[in-house]
Specification:
By secondary structure, the chain is an alpha/beta fold. It has 14 helices and 20 strands. The chain is 38% helix and 22% strand. Strand 8, helix 8 and strand 9 form a beta-alpha-beta unit. Helix 2 packs antiparallel against helix 4 and helix 3 crosses helix 4.
Length: 461
């Protein structure tokens, strides 16, 4: 009897019979070997200098831009991302590589006077070595990029372990990146938990995005080794709607945040908190907006809500809504693929899983609050704290009344979804662990600070 070797497979969620990829999982020893090859290549990449790293990252951006249509189509097919969102993700991916292509020229330290006597004090930031990146399937190009580009810009080598469901996207991205970089400076490591655990056990710095249970395990493992780690995990994000808000605009923004990409974003809206007199008009407007969301084939440019990533995810959405009062949705489209209709429920009892756990699908609960203070208490009552959207016409409320929200990001009169890649990204509580991602914060995370004392020779003790 022969053992069956583990495999990595990827299917089209809009047509589960369409198998994109089936390859052997490399295993733990191959994962560690990949890290060691990256470690051997890293010093040469750093010593090539700022101009070489900048040119290489710029060339990656150009290569992705040239393949934009192909990459968008691949994201549609492999993860079911609606075509319009897939195109936008590829464009953002290009922009991120271009943004960090300038980073090698940034100052890496400062010069200070000594407290007494001749000499100088210097601070300098240097790369850690090999960055291990563990990424999810929902943004198959953008998330690997906003981790890899700053790590590479700072002089690290990178080993990327993508989610199995997005392996084809990661391998295609790697083909483009490797055309511009030296051998083994950027490597994709396919696989599952075995390969991910081995990666975390071997690299010099770890960046993770995914579920909260796995992220907390990754953080514990990296911390036990004494290596820097960041983990971006779940969200149970709220949208607060005050009575003075533009209800039609708020409903449109919230519907997009609930249903876009079938709610498969950590920044999606899961709870809608209507304050006071906003409840009745918002209930009607949001229900209507969700019923109008185009659901269907992600390759259709008009589709907003495509399939969920796999059958289990679809079943989780159905189970979460079972027995609840449904205002919109609640039934899946009658077509092949793992679909769920955008759904709004109300009269959800305190303690219900929808109010405590991330479903990662196109479903949200409508909740009522007496006033802003009550709405803030509702928002803060969950274990997560990634992003909150607030809809109001009152600038004073927007600027001064929301400091008690325990979330890493607050978006005023805008959807909860959406990321400005040049600014820090992250949350509080169980949503995030460690330093922020993106912007200049990422460059700091992928480097360590050193202090140098330069004393003249013969200056004595």
């Amino acid at each position: 009897m022969t053992d069956v070797l583990p495999t990595v497979t990827s299917h089209n969620p809009a047509d589960p019979a369409d198998e994109l990829l089936r390859i052997p999982a490399p295993g733990a020893f191959a994962a560690v070997d990949t890290v060691e090859r990256a470690r051997a290549a890293q010093p040469g990449w750093l010593l090539a200098g700022a101009a070489a790293r900048s040119a290489a990252l710029g060339a990656v951006a150009a290569g992705i831009e040239a393949a934009a249509d192909e990459l968008a189509a691949l994201a549609v097919r492999e993860v079911g991302k609606p075509l319009a969102e897939a195109r936008a993700e590829v464009a953002r991916t290009v922009a991120i590589w271009r943004y960090y292509a300038q980073a090698p020229y940034e100052a890496t330290g400062t010069v200070h006077e000594t407290a007494a006597g001749p000499g100088l004090l210097l601070t300098r930031r240097r790369p850690h070595g090999v960055a291990g990146l563990v990424t999810p399937w929902n943004f198959p190009f953008a998330i690997p990029t906003w981790k890899a580009a700053p790590a590479l810009a700072a002089g690290n080598a990178v080993v990327l372990k993508p989610a199995p469901e997005a392996t084809a996207c990661a391998l295609r991205l790697a083909e483009i990146v490797r055309q511009a970089l030296p051998e083994s400076v950027f490597t994709v490591l396919p696989g599952g938990a075995t390969e991910g655990n081995a990666l975390v056990s071997a690299v010099n710095v770890v960046s993770f995005t995914g579920s909260t249970p796995v992220g907390r395990a990754v953080a514990r493992a990296a911390t036990a080794r004494g290596v820097p780690v960041q983990a971006e995990m779940g969200g149970l994000n709220a949208a607060l709607v005050l009575p003075d808000a533009d209800i039609a605009q708020a409903a449109a923004h919230i519907a997009a945040s609930i249903a876009g990409f079938a709610g498969q974003k950590c920044t999606a809206t899961s709870r809608v908190v209507a304050v006071g007199a906003a409840l009745d008009p918002l209930r009607e407007a949001l229900s209507e907006a969700l019923r109008a969301v185009p659901v269907g084939d992600p390759a259709d440019p008009s589709t907003v809500c495509g399939p969920l990533i796999h059958e289990y995810a679809r079943d989780q959405v159905a189970e979460a809504c079972r027995g609840l009062s449904v205002l919109a949705g609640g039934t899946a489209p009658d077509r092949s693929g793992w679909y769920a209709a955008p759904t709004l429920v109300e009269k959800v009892a305190p303690g219900h899983p929808l109010l405590r756990e991330e479903v990662f699908g196109p479903v949200a609960s409508l909740l009522a609050a007496d006033d802003l203070a009550h709405a803030i208490r509702i928002t803060n009552s969950v274990p997560y704290g990634l992003v909150t959207s607030v809809h109001t016409a009152d600038l004073n409320t927007a600027l001064n009344g929301l400091d008690l929200l325990d979330t890493g990001m607050i978006r005023i009169n805008a959807p909860s979804t959406g990321v400005d890649f040049h600014l820090p990204f992250g949350g509080s509580k169980q949503s995030s662990h460690g330093p922020r991602e993106q912007g200049r914060a990422a460059l700091e995370f992928y480097t360590s600070g050193r202090t140098y004392t330069l004393a003249p020779a013969g200056s004595g003790a």
